[in-house]
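REQUEST FORM: STRUCTURE PREDICTION
Request ID: SP-0412
Submitted by: Lab K.M.
Chain count: 1
Length (residues): 181
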Amino acid sequence: MEAIQCIKERRSVRTFKTEKVSQEIVEKIIETARFAPSWKNTQTARYIVIENKEMKELLAEKAVLGFSHNAGIMKNAPQLVIITCVHGRSGFERDGSYSTSKEDRWEVFDAGIATQTFCLAAYANGVASVIMGVFDEDKVKEIVGISEGQVVCAILAVGYAEGETAAPKRKEVSELVTYFI
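STATUS: Completed
RESULT:
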């Protein structure tokens, strides 16, 4: 699949078939996602794949800050992928000082690049996804047992799409660009 086609055709999918994505395909997606750029090549993104029904239900019931829309997606998706990053590396110098005025927020920027790369690689492999950002990080860490020193950046629902998802309206380029010539 051509890169431009992949970018333009990928959709946020919220309804999935019950079939799980094989471990082989998940690892193929991560094999591609690991090439996402990161601050000074720190490669801090990590991927936690959850198939366990009870854990998905716990996350849906206790970790979505009451956002029932995400709870429904989580319960019905065959798999969830929690994107974390190793805290304190991206945007920092070796002595622990900040390299950028974004301070520690750069790590989430890197995680965003890794997350989008994961979603594009998933789509190129026939796998649908949606990125969810409404969650209680502490509850997610507690339920999943995420190691100290990692930040939860996003939760993805992944699987095979149930039906077609229409393309949302996009702004025109003229609304998005400013030139100073």
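NOTES: The beta strands are 45-50, 79-86, 128-132, 150-159.
Reviewed by: T.R.
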